[in-house]
Prior knowledge:
Layout (H helix, E strand, L loop, with lengths): L1 H9 L7 E4 L5 H11 L5 E4 L1 H7 L2 H7 L4 E7 L3 H13 L4 E5 L4 H10 L4 E4 L11 H14 L4 E3 L5 H11 L3 E5 L8 H7 L3 E4 L1 H4 L4 H15 L1
Parallel strand pairs: 1-2, 1-8, 2-3, 3-4, 4-5, 5-6, 6-7, 7-8
Bound molecules: 6-hydroxyuridine-5'-phosphate.
6-hydroxyuridine-5'-phosphate binds next to β8 and α10.
Amino acid sequence: MQIVLLVMVCTMEKKTRVILALDVTSSEEAMRVVDAAKNYVDAVKTNWPLILSAGPQIITELSSVKPVICDLKIADIPNTNRLIVEQAMKRGASAVICHGFPGEDSVKSCVDAAGGSVFVVTEMSHPGGKQFTAAVADKLAAIAVAVGARGIVAPATRADRIADLRRTVGNLEIISPGVGVQGGKASDALRAGADYIIVGRTIYQSGNPRDAARKIAEEARSAI
Ligand code: BMP
């Protein structure tokens, strides 16, 4: 499993720049959407709706098709964070997403357990993201740098903030949700400095996930 894990971590391509947010609630639907969209996405992000409905083995199933980012938004004390990350990595996750607000020691615990492959949430993309996370986003990004995380999550709904946060994180990876239904544009986010955009409903709720993913990948390609 250790060897498989290393291979998956190393092979998240930077080709389409699209990460599919697979917030569906059955394994059948998940595999249908990922199979349709797989040629137009570099990775799949899975979150609680799918993990709770399909069971944690869905991480392993999906990882046979694409690298899987486990978006568990981990936010606990260091020991509990470590235990959560170990379970996700054991099942084939290529990366995990954690919150930074529990503090540097908690984020570092995730980084150690994931072999570095951790994205730290900064300013969140929804309107409420401005209420608390916006004010501390630069500090959260600085924690990601300090502990050697792989990257950060930054809002496509506020592309100017991606540009600000890029100045803080240097060459760490920026993955950016909020494209499509939330109002952000793939091209704006990438031009502002995102490495990847994260797209969910615009793909999985469309009647044709393959075409929807292709269109976003084309927009991404034209922006870089
Ligand atoms: P959608 O494209 O359907 O809006 O999905 C966006 C995905 O990104 C969801 O899985 C959501 O949990 C996640 N996300 C987000 O929208 N904003 C953030 O600030 C952080 C996220 O992880």
